[in-house]
Predict the 3D structure of the following.
Amino acid sequence: MLNSSVSLLTAILTAIVVFFFTAAWMRMKSARDGYRTAKAAVAPARKTMWSKIGSLLKVAVLVVIFALLLVAWQVSDLADAADGKPSPSPSVSHD
């Protein structure tokens, strides 16, 4: 009778150990698949990131050029306005 209970206990412990090893193996397999998927997605994500940065830099350059053109236009307008209207003389008249 003692041998059968020891055999039953050994079988139960073996089943538990095999179950946990199988569960761990499935988790590792799932993690490996997830890692491969993430690794495969890195190159397209990196390409997209650099593309977005490039387009952002293009827009920034255009904005800077536009701002410089506006400033130059305003300066030329102020210079034209100053040439058209003489400023009053600072001298005081003695009448």
Q: What stands out?
A: Helices lie at 2-84. The chain is about 85% helix and 0% strand. Residues 2-84 form the longest helix (83 residues). The two ends are 139 Å apart (CA to CA).
